Amino acid sequence: xxxxxxxxxxxxxxxxxxxxxxxxxxxxxxxxxxxxxxxxxxxxxxxxxxxxxxxxxxxxxxxxxxxxxxxxxxxxxxxxxxxxxxxxxxxxxxxxxxxxxxxxxxxxxxxxxxxxxxxxxxxxxxxxxxxxxxxxxxxxxxxxxxxxxxxxxxxxxxxxxxxxxxxxxxxxxxxxxxxxxxxxxxxxxxxxxxxxxxxxxxxxxxxxxxxxxxxxxxxxxxxxxxxxxxxxxxxxxxxxxxxx
Amino acid sequence: xxxxxxxxxxxxxxxxxxxxxxxxxxxxxxxxxxxxxxxxxxxxxxxxxxxxxxxxxxxxxxxxxxxxxxxxxxxxxxxxxxxxxxxxxxxxxxxxxxxxxxxxxxxxxxxxxxxxxxxxxxxxxxxxxxxxxxxxxxxxxxxxxxxxxxxxxxxxxxxxxxxxxxxxxxxxxxxxxxxxxxxxxxxxxxxxxxxxxxxxxxxxxxxxx
Lengths: 244, 209
Prior knowledge:
Order of helices and strands of chain A: HHEHEEEEEEHEHEHEEEE
Strand content of chain A: 15-25%
Largest sheet of chain B: 6 strands, mixed
Distance between the termini of chain B: 60 Å
Largest sheet of chain A: 5 strands, mixed
Number of helices of chain B: 5
Number of helices of chain A: 6
Strand content of chain B: 15-25%
Strand order of the largest sheet of chain A: 4-3-2-8-13
Distance between the termini of chain A: 107 Å
Structural class of chain A: alpha+beta
Number of domains of chain B: 2
Number of strands of chain A: 13
Radius of gyration of chain B: 29 Å
Oligomer: heterodimer
Number of strands of chain B: 10
Structural class of chain B: alpha/beta
Shape of chain A: extended
Helix content of chain B: 40-55%
Radius of gyration of chain A: 30 Å
């Protein structure tokens, strides 16, 4: 029997060895990955902070006597708009020109189920929106009124109440409109947002607005190097009130 | 002079083109590198989907509000309010009653803006319609708060210190169609379970500044 050449043996082994069949594994992956991508949330989840109403104590009562709290309250009326009230020296204040009514949107796109503005609802065949621009202008004016609020100690608390049928989407938008100082960019997307002088001219301008961001801060419970940029506050503390 | 310098470059380009044509014509594909990409992607997605308690699947029953609030969500007692039920820590606590024109809603009705959502008075304190306290929700929250306290107590001191700030916090994942009356009842009940700092989850819609 003749001996085999080493080169022959090498050739023979390479012909016999079979590659691992990865096609079935690939098939599973191709099913699994789109399924997981569908389940994956691409949105950023953040939170809106709300405090439960608390009973006042003796100490807080004494402080109130020194300087009466503004006790600013926004009441959301179902399909009617907003009523803003506050405490003055001997009476309760209310807007001079009555409640803030609804705003008629120029077209039905504002009420579109997917791309419409949260806070706009079709009513009697017309798309009508809660006027967040007017609400923002009103609460900003009250906050900056030196007769009502001490400029050295700006009021932090705002009460929000609503009629029973008002939905969370509208309450949430209202919280947005009263908690942060808002600004608009001047055309160029890289420029800083600035507060519109004299407030917002209307809802068309308001929908383009966003909060003016403050410096990065470390919040309780965060890691040593973790920082977050919060908005410049208008009224930091939102308290839910009940309408009897 | 110029022609002499460019000539070899052109020859090289032609040779490279020929080589490329030859390899393209081979028709083979290396599946191993594809497998590597797929495995990395699969592991990343599995970790992301399973580890985040706020990985929310939106649908007809749960659609979050859009907002530009930038406060981050922290580890706390999670509560989810959909058009069908209220759940605490992913366990069903109370059903939500849905009515449309006096009848109980069907699956198709949940997209209708005219539906009326409420909590059955039987689930409220003393069975009263006007009561703000939802008894099964209060029990579920008490249990979750106790569980969270026990979990944290067994952790090392640095983790205890980190989570101490979140003890009175409830994260509420709420559908944007839930009426204010129900929210008021939930807020009141949550406050009664020693959770006074309520944080409503929203989908961040970006900021201008």
